[in-house]
Amino acid sequence: MLDMFDMCTPELQSKLKPMRDAFKEDEDKKVEQLRMSKTSEQGTAPVSSDSTEKKEEKKALPFSFEDDPGSNNSGFYELQALITHKGRSSNSGHYVAWVRVDETHWAMCDDDEVHTVDGDSVLKLSGGGDWHCAYLLLYAPRVLIQ
């Protein structure tokens, strides 16, 4: 995740605060649910009614300001795709595209071959020597699902 909050003006930071607080509340809720599920697995706490009820349909909250289409109302961005170069120089080597499929899987597009890889494979793209080096990174606003 890329957080651009510190690069914003104080006025914009104050506009970003409500959505950032919503992200924090959502993350805190997920941590609490994880903690509760771990304690219920140990038999020390009852299973919450949320887990036994039918899951309600979730929807994405708006990620831009109403008066500014295309903006980002949180300052959080998630990596969606990247292009890497593998080789010692720009004149030789090979370019590969990596595209996010879902939270844990990416598509590695290598010429006419496409392979599904896990997120850990993308984290290993740190460059150096003959290994893949990030050339172009494409980010999109982080979306809160509720």
Automatic annotation (TrEMBL):
Classification via InterPro entries: Papain-like_cys_pep_sf, Peptidase_C19_UCH, UBP14-like, USP, USP_CS
Gene3D superfamilies recorded: Cysteine proteinases
GO MF annotation: an example: cysteine-type deubiquitinase activity
Biased composition (Basic and acidic residues): 18-35, 51-60
Reactions accelerated catalytically: Thiol-dependent hydrolysis of ester, thioester, amide, peptide and isopeptide bonds formed by the C-terminal Gly of ubiquitin (a 76-residue protein attached to proteins as an intracellular targeting signal)
Keyword Cytoplasm among UniProt keywords: no
Enzyme Commission (EC) number: 3.4.19.12
Pfam family, one: UCH
Residues covered by the USP domain: 1-142
SUPFAM superfamilies, A to Z: Cysteine proteinases (SSF54001)
Positions of the UniProt region annotated as Disordered: 16-67
GO biological process: proteolysis
Enzyme class: hydrolase
Biased composition (Polar residues): 36-50
Keywords for the protein's UniProt record, in alphabetical order: Hydrolase, Protease, Thiol protease, Ubl conjugation pathway
PANTHER family according to UniProt: UBIQUITIN CARBOXYL-TERMINAL HYDROLASE, UBIQUITIN CARBOXYL-TERMINAL HYDROLASE 14
Protein name: ubiquitinyl hydrolase 1
Organism annotation: Gnathostoma spinigerum
